[in-house]
Amino acid sequence: MKSGGGWTGLANLLTLKLLTMGKFELSEAAKQERRKYKRQWAAKNREKLNAYQREWAKKNPDKIKKIHQRYWERKAQKSEK
Known about the structure:
The relative contact order is 0.07. It is extended, with a radius of gyration of 17 Å. About 85% of the residues lie in helices and about 0% in strands. The protein has helices spanning about 5-20, 30-45, 45-60, 60-80. It has a domain at about 25-80. The chain is built from 4 helices and no strands.
């Protein structure tokens, strides 16, 4: 299954990289607008996102196992405190 990311996926990756590297800062209003846009996009494309995540999980069972293991270890650590 093709992810359909294309240029959009690349643009998101580059934007994230620039944001985390501190190359540019967004104003609070711009951050809120960006979050709003992403929430709307995700709601509109919920089925595509879920299908992609299921496919990824099928292709990466070893990573899923590690993710679950880390989750439960953190959960156990928090309950000990």
